[in-house]
Structure formats: C-alpha cells, structure tokens
Design brief:
The chain is mainly beta and 718 residues long. It folds into five domains: 32 residues; 101 residues, Immunoglobulin-like (Sandwich), CATH 2.60.40; 154 residues, Sandwich (Immunoglobulin-like), CATH 2.60.40.10; 129 residues, Sandwich (Immunoglobulin-like); 100 residues, Immunoglobulin-like, CATH 2.60.40.10. β25 and β26 form a beta hairpin.
Length: 718
C-alpha cells in the first residue's frame, strides 16, 4: 500500500511540474496553456514548379494561439546549402508573401541562378516553439541548346524519297517536345511543325516523294528549322549544325564534343574542355533565321540510287567504323529507261575521299582498269546496275591510316544520266573487328521464300554478340534488335554463324527488307554490315499482244511474227518463247526441247517450216523474275498449213479477157464503165484471207502504178 501511495505522489508532482513550466495567458474566462506550435502553410508555388520568369513569389498563411508568429524563409540549393535567409511577418489576416528574383531580373541583387531550390519556411512563436513547411522550385530561364547532326552536310544534300533530320538537345531541365519544320526560301512553312521522336536525342522523317500535301520543285532548295520547348516553357531561337562544331574545334584530332559540353559552352559561357571551343566562337555559329538555316535540295525522279552494304550513308563517322584495309561495297542502280551503268567506262563510277576536318581531297578512284585491281576499285555488271568495291587508299595507292574520313561516290549511265551521293562519313579504327556476311551479295538480292544470313568474324579480343535489326521499305531500323546471336560466344573468331529465318514476320509481304547486323566485342568495339533483300513471291505478268495468223481460223504458214509483254514489280530476269503440243500445261522456264516442247524460239517469230504441216501447236511465253518466280501467258493455238495454192480472184463486172484498148471499143463494146462505176468480184483461199487486198489501175497508161490514185486498198468482208 505504501508503494502505491508513493507512486501517486510522484505522478502528482510531475503534473504540477508540467503545468508550472507552461505559458499562461488570459483568454475569456481564465488562464489557458499555450501547448501548440504555430502553424505555417505555403499556398504557392506547388512543389517542383518550373520558373522561367524574372521573379517568382512564394505565398502562404501563418497563425498561432498566442499571436502572430515570426517567419524565417531559407532558400536551399540542390546540395542543401542555404543560399538566402529572409524574415517575413504575416499581416493581420495571417497572410504572407515573399518574392525572389531570377537571372532574368534587371536588378541582379540577390537574384537566384538557374537550378533547383527548396523554399524552407520556419514559423516561431514568442516562446520558441517552431513548425516547418517547404516547397520546391526549379528555376530555368535559359532556352535549350539544339544541335542538328543529320543531314551530315549543312547544305547541298540531295533527297528524293524522304529526308531524315536528326539531332540532340542540352537543357538543365527535361524537354517537353521537339518540333521540326520544312521551310520555303521566303521562310513560309512547307511542312510541319511536326513532333520528332525522342527529346534529348531526336529524329524525324519527312516523306517527299508522292506526298500530296507537299508541292516540291525539282532542283529547288528547302530549309529546315528546329524548335524545342523545355519543361519550364523556354523555347530556343537558334540551333547549331554539326559541321560548324567540327570546324570550330581547336584541335582537329580531338573527339567531337559531347552535347553536354556544347550546351555548357552555350549556356554557361564555359570554354569546352575537350574541344577548346570558346563561348564567343560558338555564338558565331548560331543559326537563327531562314538565310542561315540548314538546307537541302529536292530532286524528283528519276535518280541514280546508291546503296552501301557496310556503311550507312546518313550516319556520322563514329557509327561507320571499319577495320584497316577494308573496302567499301555497294550497288549503283540507274533509273528505269535511263540506260545502264557501263563497268568498262572509267568515268561511269568515281570515288572521292576527303580529309575529315579540312575537306581537302585525298584521292580520286576510277575504274581505269576493268580487268585488274591496280586502280583499287572493282565494278561488276548486274543488269543495268553495277556492284562496286573500292579500297580506302590515298593517291599513291597506300592504305589510309586509322582516322575519320569523308567520301562521295558519283555515277553516270550510258545515256548520261548522272548522280552522286551526299557527303558520307566513316572511321578507320585499328581495333574494329573484322565482320563479313556471305549469303547475300549484289548478284543475289532477291528471294521468294525464307532465307538466312551467314556471318564470319574475328578480333584480337573476344567477340561477344551479333545483333540483327530488320526494317521494311523506308522505315527506320527498330531501337532494339530483332535477333541477338550469342551461341558459341565469346570467342576470338567464328565462321558460318547463321541468323534465324528471314524475314522475321511469320507472314511477310512482298517488298524491300533492310538488315543491319552489328558485331560487338567484349570491350565494346563494333562493326556493322548492311544488307538489302527484295522479298517477292508474286509471279510476273505475261501477255501475248499480237499474233500474225490468217483471217479465218488459226492457220499460219511460213514465218509468223508475234509480240508479247512481261512485267514484274521488282524486275524481269528473262523471257522465253516455247512452241508446244500441249495447250494445257505451260512449260517451265528452264525446260528444254523434248516431249511436248518442239521449239524454243530465239526471237519473237516462228519459222513454221520447222513444224509438221497441218499440225496443231501452242505458243507459250514464259517469264522469270529476279526472285525466281515464273509466270506465263495464255496459250496461243495455231495450225500449220503450208499448202502452196494461191488465192483465187474472180471479177464479176468486167471481162478479164479484154487486155487492149481497141478491144474495149469493139465492136462489141466491153468493159466500158460509166463515171462512178464499180469493179466487183470475189477472192477465195482455203487458207483464209487477210483483212485487205490491193487493186492497181494504170490510170495514165504509162506502164506503172506509181501515180496518184493508181493503188487502191480494198477492205475484205464476207
């Protein structure tokens, strides 16, 4: 019991101590105890608000049971350091506000620089009780820095089907969107603004050919503008082009500066640590109006097409990496009906290699020796097209050392249709792996069923993987590979490593399929191979357009001429003419004479003397396209009749025995026709008749039929 009383006394003592330690104030009927801290609230801005104005205001309310509390406002930067401390008092209604200046303010006293800040508000009453609240702002008053990386050339690049415009963006905050416009020379919008894919790294494709919404003039120059908006609402007023940045580097051999470095030079006035580019120098390359914007030339069809198999014509040098002693390979195709590229003409294909930094010409390569390799280029005929393979050498024939280079390929057809690539970039890297694909070459680009690629590779270090990307038509390659091959890897080398069945779609449609295969070492070095395949499962269309048979029936004799046409979306490989005794089953393209097939014709004519008289035969026209699909015409039946009788001509209105003028006047008078009289008769032949006959009348009796009105063509009927 005593223990219990002692416990009670102790508890009471604590209670008394607690009361005497509190502030007592009179309110209403008696004294009250101030136990609660003051209350402070921030009304605006909401947390993580973006600010791009010259100032912003923080507003709120504050209250306390014992009166108006004191407010201390601390501004902390992203590292948590306090950069400003201010005191503010609420008004009689408990409202308070405080304004902060940014770098946009005319008066920069105590202005906050761009960055992320926490606004920490502490409310304290007279007894020292406190309460904290906070919000945050992101000050961003600078517009994004924008760089265009493609087209690779600032101006003069030529495009027909599509144009891809690519680039990068630097900004202290996140990017809301990137929009690109195509412009006419007067600055009016031709296309767009269209939202690009991506933000800090972005790309967009404009379709030029067949675009009903665009009116483009052949050979005309058009410009492009890029507008980027960041999360704070800042919008750039200029952009840079990669070519200008290359020319500003103080050390030509230094790597291209990162977008982070370019942005800090532009926005923070810091000289680039890698490039040595100064803020003043960079500012001279701002492209801010139509007279300065990057541009391109639109060229309407037809155009010579250049296709490369181991570099990309739109990529920067760092993405077109080749090992030393490599050759650049590809195909050149002239437009339809514009002649052929002649591999024996030394001026039909020309390669120019330039210094990457100065654009100085290093070497010019032409096919001056079609049968040898001392000219460092091989050009082979493929129909009207050619495949090419040229070495990367200087004018003395020495292999170019590891470095970055530019090049241009030009070509002309035998009808003098000319074309050239835009300026291309590549890099020779001594540490790049060797990489080859052996199943698909320039002579074997067409498939009518599933196929595979086969790869060989080697390197001084282990090879890690092969990644394969597939794109159809003009679509870009996907961001992630369609297939990754790692079986048997890592290894120093491999041969005959097969892809999966291609195309990857289980039900592929006809069209052009493009493939990009990337070999990567364990250390991250890469090599790229490009391949294109025309997938075609549709047979060519074939039609006999004329056949010289006799008027009645299908009888023929002597030499019979005919015409036929064959067409295919991706090109006809060959056409053959078969004479067969089978009118139901068309011959195959590679069939030979034998069985039902009695003739394979070399020209569009039939020598019927080689056939059995009175025999029935069928003409078949069979075509094969480049993918191996075969199509045929409907069978044209004919019967050979080599009888030697001639047509029988009978006159019914005149006497054919009268052969002299004296016989006409008689007596008796014969064959005397009145004005407007007619000569009539019949023509008969058991082989059939043509559609017309000719009657000759020697009007002026000069012994020939060459005068006007002496040759008359008669239409036969009945």
């Amino acid at each position: 019991m005593r223990f219990f009383k002692g416990f009670v006394v102790f508890s009471l003592a604590m209670a008394v101590f607690s009361v005497t330690g509190c502030d007592l104030f009179t309110a209403g009927l008696g004294a009250k105890v101030d136990l609660a801290p003051p209350v402070a609230k921030i009304i605006s801005p909401a947390p993580n608000t973006y600010v791009n104005a010259n100032s912003f205001t923080v507003t709120g309310t504050a209250s306390d049971d014992s009166g108006s509390p004191n407010l201390t406002v601390r501004v902390k930067n992203a590292s948590g350091a306090v950069v400003q401390t201010l005191n503010v008092s609420p008004d009689s209604a408990g409202n308070w506000s405080i304004t902060f200046k940014t770098r946009k303010a005319a008066d920069q006293t105590n202005a906050l620089t761009d960055g992320q800040y926490t606004i920490d508000v502490t409310a304290a009453d007279a007894k020292g009780k406190t309460q904290n609240t906070y919000t945050s702002v992101i000050i961003d008053t600078l517009p994004p820095t924008v760089l265009v990386t493609s087209p690779l050339s600032f101006n003069g690049s030529q495009y027909t089907d599509t144009i891809d415009i690519k680039g990068e963006v630097y900004d202290a905050t996140t990017i809301r969107d990137v929009k690109v416009s195509l412009l006419k020379n007067d600055g009016t919008v031709l296309a767009g603004p269209a939202v690009a894919d991506g933000t800090n790294t972005w790309t967009i494709r404009f379709t030029l050919k067949g675009n009903a919404s665009l009116t483009l003039l052949d050979g005309a120059t058009y410009s492009y503008n890029v507008q980027v908006v960041d999360a704070a609402g800042n919008i750039n007023t200029y952009y840079f082009h990669r070519v200008d940045i290359l020319n500003l580097k103080t050390d030509p051999d230094a790597p291209f500066p990162s977008m982070d470095e370019i942005g800090k030079i532009d926005q923070q006035g810091i000289t680039g640590s890698t490039s040595g580019i100064t803020p003043v120098a960079l500012s001279t390359k701002r492209l801010s109006n139509i007279s300065q914007f990057g541009n391109f030339i639109y060229e309407a069809d037809p155009q010579i097409q250049f296709q490369f198999t181991n570099i990309k014509d739109t990529e920067i040098a760092e993405n077109n990496v080749l090992p030393p002693k490599s050759k650049v390979n590809g195909i050149i195709t002239p437009p339809v009906n514009s002649g052929a590229i002649d591999p024996n003409d030394p001026n039909s294909v020309k390669v120019e290699i330039f210094d990457f930094n100065t654009d100085a010409l290093i070497s010019t390569i032409k096919n001056t020796n079609p049968s040898g390799d001392d000219d460092h280029i091989t050009v082979l005929k493929i129909g009207n097209s050619v495949s090419f393979s040229f070495a990367l050498v200087d004018n003395t024939g020495l292999d170019l050392p590891p470095a970055k280079y530019k090049l241009k390929v030009s070509a002309k057809s035998d009808q003098n249709i000319q074309g050239s690539t835009n300026m291309l970039e590549l890099m020779i890297d001594a540490e790049a792996p060797n990489f080859e694909e052996t199943n698909i070459d320039a002579n074997n680009m067409f498939r009518n069923g599933s196929f595979t690629m086969s790869f060989d590779g080697s390197h001084s270090t282990n090879l890690a993987k092969i990644e394969i990307y597939e794109a159809k038509g003009n679509n870009p390659f996907p961001a992630t590979p369609n297939e990754t091959i790692t079986a048997g890897l890592p290894a120093l080398s491999f041969t005959g490593k097969q892809s999966g069945n291609l195309p990857y779609d289980s039900s592929p449609t006809d069209g052009l399929y493009k493939y990009q295969a990337v070999l990567t070492t364990v250390g991250g070095k890469t090599a790229t191979i490009l391949r294109s395949v025309y997938y075609d499962t549709t047979a060519p269309s074939v039609e006999i357009t004329s056949f010289d048979k006799l008027l009645t029936g299908n009888k023929v004799n002597k030499t019979v001429n005919f015409n036929a046409i064959a067409g295919d979306t991706f090109g006809v490989e060959g056409v053959k003419y078969f004479v067969s005794t089978d009118g139901s089953n068309a011959p195959a393209f590679n069939d030979s004479v034998g069985g039902n097939i009695v003739l394979i014709l070399g020209t569009a004519s039939i020598d019927t003397t080689l056939l059995t008289d009175l025999g029935t035969y069928y003409l078949w026209i069979v075509a094969k396209d480049k993918a191996g699909n075969e199509g045929h015409s409907a069978a044209q039946q004919f019967v050979v009749d080599q009888s030697t009788d001639i047509p029988v001509v009978t006159f019914s209105s005149i006497d054919t025995g009268i052969t002299a003028e004296s016989q006409v006047i008689g007596p008796p008078v014969k064959n005397l026709l009145v004005s407007g009289g007619k000569i009539s008769g019949t023509i008969e032949d058991d082989d059939g008749l043509p559609g017309s006959a000719t009657i000759y009348i020697d009007i002026n009796k000069d012994g020939d039929f060459g005068d006007a009105g002496e040759t008359n063509v008669l239409t036969l009927s009945g």
